[in-house]
Amino acid sequence: MTSPRLTHLNDKGEAHIVDIGDKAVTRRRAVAQARLSGQAETIATILEGGLKKGDALATARIAGIMAAKKTADLIPLCHPIPLTHVSVDIKADGEASLLILASAETTGQTGVEMEALLAASTAALTLYDMAKAIDRAMVVSDLCLVEKSGGKSGDFVRTS
């Protein structure tokens, strides 16, 4: 027996990839966020490009984009989809944290929420990796879908 909310279960209750063959092709977009918090000095060093490993912001952006393109390889039951655009923006959020916003877009039969979430989390983890030598106590948090548009389930905008 399947739950109407758990669409990745078949009639036997087993996980399977959802058949999207009958879904309409629409423009779909999703934005996700993650946060990296650490010592104020660490965040300043990242923003100033002062890490020994190089430009952490550029590396994290590329890592996020690359991760979005590999979502179907990393997350079971995700459809491989052609992405038309992916962006990763990183900005200071106070003195002791960075906010990572990732957006993913496609024109297709299924959404790009997982691609945006994977891009945001991978960018945050890349920043952590590049700065861990100076601050192992950093925290990656607040990974969530911020908004989505397009598709059968309609639009979503996080209000909190």
TrEMBL record:
Keywords: Lyase, Molybdenum cofactor biosynthesis. The active site is at D129. GO terms for biological process: Mo-molybdopterin cofactor biosynthetic process. One of its GO terms (molecular function) is cyclic pyranopterin monophosphate synthase activity. The keyword Lyase applies. Its EC number is 4.6.1.17. Residues 18-151 form the Molybdopterin cofactor biosynthesis C (MoaC) domain. SUPFAM superfamilies: Molybdenum cofactor biosynthesis protein C, MoaC. InterPro entries: MoaC, MoaC_bact/euk, MoaC_sf, MoCo_biosynth_MoaA/MoaC, Mopterin_CF_biosynth-C_dom. The keyword ATP-binding does not apply. It catalyses: (8S)-3',8-cyclo-7,8-dihydroguanosine 5'-triphosphate = cyclic pyranopterin phosphate + diphosphate. Gene3D superfamilies: Molybdopterin cofactor biosynthesis C (MoaC) domain (3.30.70.640). Pathway: Cofactor biosynthesis; molybdopterin biosynthesis. Pfam families: MoaC. Substrate binds at L77, C78, H79, M114, E115. Homohexamer; trimer of dimers. Catalyzes the conversion of (8S)-3',8-cyclo-7,8-dihydroguanosine 5'-triphosphate to cyclic pyranopterin monophosphate (cPMP). Belongs to the MoaC family. This is Cyclic pyranopterin monophosphate synthase. It comes from Devosia chinhatensis.
